[in-house]
Design a protein that fits this description.
The complex is a heterodimer of chains A (about 260) and B (about 130). Chain A has helices spanning about 40-50, 55-65, 70-75, 80-105, 130-145, 175-180, 190-195, 200-210, 225-240, 250-255; strands at about 10-20, 20-25, 30-35, 105-110, 160, 215. The radius of gyration of chain A is 23 Å and the shape is globular. Helix content of chain A is about 45%, strand content about 10%. In chain A, α2 (about 55-65) crosses α3 (about 70-75). Chain A starts with 11 loop residues before the first strand and ends in a 6-residue tail after the last helix. Chain A has 2 domains: about 10-145, no CATH class; about 150-215, Arc Repressor Mutant, subunit A (Orthogonal Bundle). In chain B, β4 (about 80-85) and β5 form a beta hairpin. The longest helix of chain B is centred in the last third of the chain and has 25 residues, at about 100-125. Chain B is built from 3 helices and 5 strands; from the N terminus they run αββαβββα. With about 130 residues, chain B is of the alpha+beta class. In chain B, α1 (about 1-15) packs antiparallel against α3 (about 100-125). Chain B has helices at about 1-15, 40-60, 100-125; strands spanning about 20-25, 30-35, 70-75, 80-85, 90-95. Chain B has one domain (about 1-125): Beta-Lactamase. The chains are: A alpha+beta (about 260), B alpha+beta (about 130). The interface of A and B includes residues 47, 244 and 245 of A.
Chain lengths: ~260, ~130
């Protein structure tokens, strides 16, 4: 578990060791940001979901990031409302701490910060009390624990039971998107990144879809390589693993848009 | 069989490192050896990775930064990382924007070493 119950005073980083672990940013005793490879940060949530365009993000980042004013620039440019941006940043912190805890935390170590450290680009202002964060994380962990009975863990790679039902009402949009991304290769975390949605929300929908029989979590049959299938085992022994280049067979010129001549 | 061993290495890397989405092994001149890809064309990844690796190596030497460790390209939607596998092949990795780059650099070394063994053994047998 995250040692968020420990006294957190002043401003520092909490380096969370785990698989994959992450970093919690503390300012004046409050948690202002949390980053981990296990859940999408505010940038992914805003851009991947289409809430902020790539161009708007780049312009706001160039203008605001060097002075720690990215949030103000995004709002000033009308890319996103102030309340909407705060909500995204807040949910990214809750999601990141939940994700770190879900994937497993081995230890956490406070580290001092100094003026040379680059601050988190979109901090929650003023920040979240650690008790609230710990309470919410415990609540989410308790809920995900119940889904374990369905076989739902962070490591599953669910597959949509084909055919995927057509989108009938707008409220089903996220469920539909999850079904289109669930191809047996992606974990809930991978789907969350692909869609720019929080990990907890995605796992919650996956649990519902599994319950309804629209997603299966049994691993799909291993894909058979057509070429291998045709050539057979004897052929495989004769064929070298390392291919040889034959003059005139390269596709790179075509890939790079060169003329046939 | 060796093809399966190579594929197993790629699957294992995807399992071990958060954010690894697709991988491919190719020869240094850009021919596909084996791929664990989803949406991208493995032939395209192989060809462009070979060009990228060559350019990275050359650039490092030209500006006096010596031997290439890896080429890391960061885009809006994620990362492209290319490692040399001995002097004959390369490993290309595509990751999303949450890719655990630090973990990848640690985990990819033994993978590259095992891939080198598999490919060198193959070449010795040929």
């Amino acid at each position: 578990m995250l040692r968020l119950g420990e006294p957190i005073d002043g401003s520092h980083l909490l380096r969370v060791m785990g698989s994959p672990g992450g970093i919690v940013h503390v300012r004046d005793g409050l948690v202002v940001a949390a980053t981990t490879p296990a859940s999408p940060g505010p940038e992914s949530l805003l851009i991947r979901s289409g809430r902020v365009s790539e161009t708007a993000w780049n312009e706001a980042f160039t203008a605001g990031a060097p002075d720690d004013r990215l949030a103000a620039e995004l709002v000033a440019r009308g890319s996103v409302g102030e309340a909407g941006l705060e909500a995204v940043c807040l949910s990214a912190v809750f999601d990141a701490v939940f994700a770190m805890a879900l994937f497993g935390v081995e230890d956490s170590q406070p580290e001092p910060t100094d003026d040379n450290d680059v601050p988190p680009p979109l901090p929650v202002v003023p920040g979240i009390e650690r008790e609230r964060l710990a309470r919410e994380t415990a609540r989410r962990l308790a809920i995900t624990e119940e889904w374990r009975e369905l076989g739902i863990t962070p490591f599953i790679r669910p597959t949509a039971v084909r055919p995927i039902p057509a989108l009938t009402i707008a409220a089903d949009h996220l469920r539909h998107e999850i079904l289109t991304k669930a191809n047996g290769r992606r974990t809930p975390r991978d789907i969350a990144f692909a869609l720019g949605q929080g990990l907890f929300v995605v796992i919650k929908e996956i649990a519902a879809l599994v319950r309804e029989g629209l997603l299966t979590i049994t691993p799909p049959a291993p894909q058979v390589d057509d070429r291998k299938e045709q050539s057979g085992a004897q052929e495989e022994r004769r064929q070298p693993l390392l291919p040889r280049r034959r003059p005139g067979t390269s596709k790179i010129a075509k890939l790079m848009g060169a003329d046939e001549s | 069989m060796a093809q399966n061993a190579l594929k197993a290495e790629l699957h294992s890397l995807r399992d071990r490192v958060t954010g690894v989405m697709e991988t491919a092994v190719a020869t240094v001149d850009g021919l596909l050896v084996v791929a664990d890809t989803d949406g991208v064309s493995p032939e395209t990844v192989s060809a462009l990775s070979a060009a990228t690796l060559g350019l990275g190596k050359r650039f490092g030497y030209e500006v006096g930064l010596h031997e290439l460790r890896e080429v890391v390209i960061r885009c809006r939607g994620g990362f492209i990382v290319v490692y040399a596998v001995g002097s004959i092949a390369l490993l290309a990795i595509l990751g999303d924007e949450g890719l655990d780059v630090a973990r990848l650099h640690v985990e990819s070394r033994p993978t590259v070493e095992r891939l080198t063994h598999l490919l060198v053994d193959e070449r010795a047998r040929a």
